[in-house]
Amino acid sequence: MSVSGTVASSTINLVKTIVGAGLLAIPYAFRADGILLAVSLALMAAFTSGYGLFILAKCSKTLLNPRHSSFFTLCSITYPNLSLLFDFAMFIQCFGVCLSYLILIGDLFPTLFGGTRTNWVLLSTLIVIPLSLLRHLDSLRYTSILGLLALSYIGLLIILTYFFGNFPKPKVDWITVSDNYGVLTTFSIIVFAFTGSMNLFSIINELKENSMTNIKKIINYSISISASCFIISGLFGYLTFGENTLGNIILNYNSDKFVVKVARFNLGLMVLLSFPLLFHPCRISANNMVHWLQLNYGTRTERNESTGPITLEIEDDTDREYLEQELGSSHDTSFVHTYQSLPRAADDVDDDHIDERTEAVPLPDSRFLTITSILLLVMYVLAMNVQSFALVLALVGATGSTAISFTLPGLFGWKLIGTEALMNGERIGTFEKIHRYGSLALSCYGIVVMVSSVYITLFV
């Protein structure tokens, strides 16, 4: 297992996971919401998404080996019968975004350099395939830097055009909502803008100094930087074009100007370099589903390839009774297995002494190449034959993004937070109890957002 990640490289990868092509739609949300509501929604989305990441990180520390953290391992000890469903939600989300990136590549580059969309989609394989064959997320840190530089150019274009562009200053709404209907249709743009949990576990597993202190730094830095990018771009884009702001801010600029052509090229480059960041968790979730099917329906040999010990031991009957008392009689505490106890806190774990006999979910080279090849082949075939699937992508975002950002972290936190203290022979503290109920609130919030977003997508 590669453990070369640092706080800086991990922050870069998480920021690039969060900040993508959706940045260009934020100014349109500002146009509909008005500045006060749009900024408020952005800050709320930043807080809820950041809290979801924090809850996932805390839950990972209940594992025997925190470097084995994933949605699959957490599901296996909390809601084992739903593991396949949870990973399927992750898979659909990542697959849909990856496919949309390939379609966008086919739409962007022909307008800049000519040629057919099919040829440009095929040409993208020269960059996409080598990057998709990298096993570790931290290996993508340099391409993430390049992608962020491409986005920075677009951001600078938006800001500098406001100050130095030859545009009449439009009327803008600072406090009032300018478009009540638009508020509904753009709600999901802001709420889903901060989705980044698909790569959090890879970051945790590959982080060299795998402590909650460092993980919290990565989350706080990433959410703060992403929120700043969204708010600044949304604000200055809306201040420049007012009620004429389009759903893709780039379309507001004169496409004949060289600086705008460079911005369009940078957008294509950013999308191209973002693909591997979403393909990485897509492959992991596909492998998790294969592994689940093997464990439940495979041969005896396949079923014997278990994931090994996942949680820590609670041998004291008093602690076990206290666990049931504190978590509530309705809580299923059967997920607390009795395995040989090892140091739990990442600050106390010596990586050389962690049981590394297997990965939490095995991904041998043969299966790695098979899953990679099949996924890429299907994505490229679809990208060359599907012109647009906006409705499907919107529904995927409403369900998949909500599940992995809010609902699942909340469900994990509700069930796992509190066991951590008992595993160290301690009682559940006040803050732990607060985070347990905060997790429950986050999960309920996710369900409300999902239902609202699906309704808006289908009927508004």
From TrEMBL:
Localization (cell): Vacuole membrane
Which key words are in the record?
Answer: Membrane, Transmembrane, Transmembrane helix, Vacuole
**Gene Ontology cellular component terms for the protein in this record:** fungal-type vacuole membrane
Transmembrane spans: 12-30, 36-57, 84-105, 117-134, 146-164, 184-206, 218-238, 258-279, 366-383, 389-417, 437-458
Q: Indicate what this protein is called per its UniProt record.
A: WGS project CCBQ000000000 data, contig 00017
Family, similarity comment: Belongs to the amino acid/polyamine transporter 2 family.
Amino acid transporter transmembrane domain mapped to chain residues? 5-451
